[in-house]
Amino acid sequence: MRYVFLMVVMDLLLAVGFAMFSFHSYRTPSVPEATTVVIERGMGAKATLRQLHAQGLLPAPWKIALPILLSGEQRNFKAGEYALVAGMAPQQVIGAIVRGDVVVHAVTLPEGWSVAQLRTILRNEPLLTGDVPAVIEEGSVAPDTIHFQRGDSRASVVERLQLQQKQRLKEAWDRRVQGLPLKTARDALILASIIEAETGVEEERRRVAAVYINRLARGMALQADPTVAYGIAPGGMTRPLTRNDLKRPTPYNTYIHVGLPPGPINNPGNASIEAAVHPLQTNELYFVATGNGGHWFAATLAEHERNVAKYRAVQRAKP
Q: What is the 3-state secondary structure (H, E, C) of the chain?
């Protein structure tokens, strides 16, 4: 009996000793230097611990298995990319993986870019996966900086931005001023894309919108150069428009066709959408670039022609 008692005591002491060793290992710094690790989707807790040990970031899994098992954390490991800091202990590393404290990346889709241009941005982002959707309707993507995790799909990014644009357009359309010569929210989106292409000056957007709203209300051709350019080169023109371009019979040539073009010419930002449904109240029908940023606006053709002459003078004076 004494022998059995001694064996039990020794087993208890060994168990206590191992537990103390295991918890000590769990709380002792193990990450030698700052680094980034990727836990792939589908990896279980055992495979994750083996990977981190092989990378020199955790002690052997058996050394820290007890506190992990007692906490139940092995059931909550989350895949993703993790940034580890020098001096982190296994407890902190495992805690980050359980919480899902993944590294967040960002990609920016600028305002006024076409779908063709946005495709290039997404394809060139190496941390995204999969193909860009084959069909993306022009104007349906919200220009924004979107955050994502390594391994997220390009399709999921597009879907999130499309949902955002849909919500923005609906909210703006629901709050539109009455009496606009726009029949649908899509009409507002088309107009917003033209406004986006015409000016990057924030305080001009609603004034540009007013010019086009006034033209639509009077049945005048919009004569918007960006629509002509889009009809010729939807991916973006690399040269200035010519007089002959203004005569080319594309569906987007608003010098030839009265009314809005058949669809958006880019993906407009929220400010241009808001401008389209909340234009200024003016009698202006024309505008031309100043040559130094911004535009001159006019209510009459004679005044517009004087502004055009001023623009040409500015251009001639440039070195």
A: CHHHHHHHHHHHHHHHHHHHHHHHHHHCCCCCCCEEEEECCCCCHHHHHHHHHHCCCCCCHHHHHHHHHHHCHHHCCCCEEEEECCCCCHHHHHHHHHHCCCCEEEEEECCCCCHHHHHHHHHCCCCCECCCCCCCCCCCCCCEEEEEECCCEHHHHHHHHHHHHHHHHHHHHHCCCCCCCCCCHHHHHHHHHHHHHHCCCHHHHHHHHHHHHHHHHHCCCCCCHHHHHHHHCCCCCCCCCCCCHHHCCCCCCCCCCCCCCCCCCCCCCHHHHHHHHCCCCCCCCEEEECCCCCEEEECCHHHHHHHHHHHHHHHHHCC
